[in-house]
Specification:
Layout lengths: L9 E5 L2 H12 L6 E7 L5 H11 L14 E6 L2 E7 L14 H7 L2 E5 L13 E8 L2 E8 L2
Parallel strand pairs: 2-5, 2-6, 4-5
Antiparallel strand pairs: 1-7, 3-4, 6-7
Helix pairs in contact: 1-2
Length: 147
């Protein structure tokens, strides 16, 4: 495994949105197929900013819409099929069955899941767990292995 492919784990400071994007871009360079990333944090902490930066770093050039109301947005970029979920509005994890979640798990090379606790019991094992929290200087981003 090359240095660029080694998992990027640890705690990182992100004072600005640009710092969050740069961190997400660094993480994107280490990703391999069949990756599932859980994104945790309070409202407005930067989960969508982080996911958007990963999607763009993998080659998506158009708009990256927030899946807040649709629950899932899909992106196809060269070599990747990406599913970006926002489960905040999910009232029952069983609702995942109605959006074809199992098929999306099989089809996706990368799954980015915001508010994963709302889908508990129905989600695949996480490759990475990312916790974003507010600090006095901006944000703290903790990246841990999910296995």
């Amino acid at each position: 495994m090359s240095a660029e492919q080694k998992p990027m784990l640890g705690q990182f400071d992100a004072a600005t949105e640009a710092d969050m994007q740069a961190l997400a871009q660094r993480l994107a360079k280490t990703l391999q197929k069949r990756t599932v990333i859980a994104l945790n944090g309070d409202l407005g902490a930067g989960k969508s900013v982080f996911a958007r930066a990963i999607i763009r770093a993998l080659g998506h050039e158009g708009a990256v819409k927030s899946p807040t109301y649709t629950l899932v947005e899909q992106y196809r970029v060269p070599g990747w099929q990406i599913a970006h979920f926002d489960l905040y509005r999910l009232t029952d994890p069983e609702e995942l069955q109605f959006i074809g979640f199992r098929e999306l798990v099989v089809e996706s090379d990368l799954m980015l899941i915001e508010w994963p606790d709302h889908g508990e019991g129905y989600l695949p094992e996480f490759s990475h767990v990312i916790d974003i929290s507010y600090t006095d200087s901006g944000r703290s981003v903790q990246i841990a292995s999910g296995s």
